[in-house]
Design brief:
Distance between the termini: 20 Å
Number of strands: 13
Structural class: alpha/beta
Bound molecules: pyridoxal-5'-phosphate
Number of helices: 13
Strand content: 5-15%
Helix content: 40-55%
Largest sheet: 8 strands, mixed
Oligomer: single chain
Strand order of the largest sheet: 2-9-8-7-6-3-4-5
Shape: globular
Order of helices and strands: HEHHEHEHEEHEHEHEEHHHEEHEEH
Radius of gyration: 23 Å
């Protein structure tokens, strides 16, 4: 089939009619399908159902510490070792928290807001016009954290290699720019793995702010879709890399077990160098006595080392892969004939990022809603919820069953085609 731009008005009108019939047929089914958030499916959650059996009435760590009681503020050693191994850093650089890494990111910025960082001239709350770099499209909740805390969000386009570093290097010459969000492995939503050069430039660049921070959110560090380990996204140890350029304080790294064991019921951590850790602990110790170490022990027994985590993640991958493949299949079948749109085919993470014909994403999302398909609002992956191109739609195939993915993506493609045809007809 030829592309829409090569069609005559009559041909486009004929397409429009056929597509409309298909759309109305789906609408008549009164579907309720949800492709909004990247949640693990019940089958994935079931993979960790035995996690508490491993405690078996024994709540002591290898060192004999009682996890049921107060103490061990930084978290038990065995789970810090597992996360250290996954992140490629020493366990002593790891601080375990409760279930949410996003919570830890928020707290970390709040500490800087109120007290400043270890190398801050003044607390960030006192910096008028403070700014934060947002590789875009990105994770909406990241953007909401920095927006809520009064930062101006500065979009930075993301390329196949990560944030556009020429632009980042320019922007950090402004001392009001205090940090950058990074999801370096299978970025949300584009599934990009940062290149070695991008990591190197982030670690090496000179910043006007002495207290500039990289928030290195390694949420998908072990969330590969392929069995083939050569295809897994690989990253340098960002802590050492920053240190090697004399910027040891520059990075906070985050991770959690939300999409390894239980979302909202798992454990999370941050990792940083010694100076940042000592400084953060001063305030963390005022905030809490300790976190949930019973859950940490359950995780450490259930997944005692990185290899156990990798094997567990391959069980997730076996469930997720067919869902991602179904997305690709329908997108290719319906839209492969034209280049008015494109989409990602990630090797890991939780999303497929769909780029519709510019100017049509909002309309597509509302048409899908009318046909019973809930999608993340168009623009959600952009600072302030505004996609200047009105093109990107984030698809989250993890939660629905395959039959629902088929229908939801099919409806999306029909809406994408209808809006494209309408736009082309308008312009004729
Ligand atoms: N970071 C990214 C990039 C995410 O996509 C998500 C969830 O979708 C989170 C963090 C949330 O992590 P947590 O459950 O540990 O708060």
């Amino acid at each position: 089939m030829k592309g829409y731009r090569d069609m005559t008005r009559e041909e486009l009108l004929a397409q429009r009619q056929e597509l409309n019939e298909r759309y109305e047929k789906y609408k008549a089914l009164n579907l309720t399908l949800d492709m909004t958030r990247g949640k693990p499916s019940p089958l994935q959650l079931d993979l960790s159902n035995d996690i508490y059996d491993v405690l078996n009435g024994d709540f002591k760590t290898a060192k004999g510490q009682d996890t049921r009681n107060y103490g061990i503020a930084e978290g038990i050693e065995e789970i810090r070792a597992v996360f250290g191994e996954i992140l490629g850093t020493d366990k002593d650089n790891v601080f375990m928290g409760n279930s949410s890494s996003l919570n830890q990111m928020y707290d970390a910025i709040m500490r800087a807001m109120v007290f400043g960082e270890v190398d801050s001239p003044k607390p960030w709350a006192q910096v008028e016009g403070r700014k934060w770099l947002c590789p875009t499209p990105g994770y909406d909740r990241h953007f909401r954290v920095t927006e809520t805390l009064g930062f101006e969000l500065i979009p930075v386009p993301i390329t196949e290699d990560g944030p556009d570093m020429d632009i980042v290097e320019e922007l950090v010459k402004d001392e009001k720019v205090k940090g950058i969000w990074c999801v370096p492995c299978y970025s949300n939503p584009d599934g990009i793995v940062y290149s070695e050069e991008t990591c190197d430039r982030l670690a090496r660049m000179e910043t006007a702010a002495s207290d500039f921070r990289i928030f290195w959110d390694n949420a998908y560090v072990v969330h590969h879709l392929s069995e083939d380990r050569n295809e897994w996204g690989k990253l340098p140890d960002m802590l050492s890399l920053c240190e090697s350029y004399g910027h040891a304080n520059r990075v906070y790294e985050f991770a959690s077990s939300s999409k390894i064991t239980f979302a909202g019921g798992g454990i999370s951590c941050f990792a940083c160098n010694k100076d940042n850790m000592t400084y953060a602990k001063k305030y963390l110790n005022a905030q809490t006595i300790c976190t949930n170490k019973v859950n940490q022990l359950a995780h450490a027994r259930f997944l005692p080392n990185a290899e156990a985590v990798y094997q567990h993640m391959m069980k997730h991958a076996a469930i997720l892969r067919p869902k991602f493949e179904e997305c690709q299949k329908v997108l290719n079948e319906e839209l492969g004939f034209d280049d008015l749109w494109h989409w990602t085919n990630p090797k890991g993470g939780y999303f497929v990022s769909f780029y519709a014909m510019p100017g049509t994403a909002t309309k597509i999302v509302s048409m899908c809603k009318e046909a019973g398909v809930a999608l993340t609002p168009a623009g959600a992956s952009y600072p302030y919820g505004k996609d200047p191109q009105d093109s990107n739609i984030r698809l989250a195939p993890s939660f629905p069953v395959i039959e629902d993915i088929e229908k939801a993506v099919r409806i999306l493609t029909i809406c994408a085609k209808i809006t494209a045809v309408d736009k082309l007809l308008e312009d004729l």
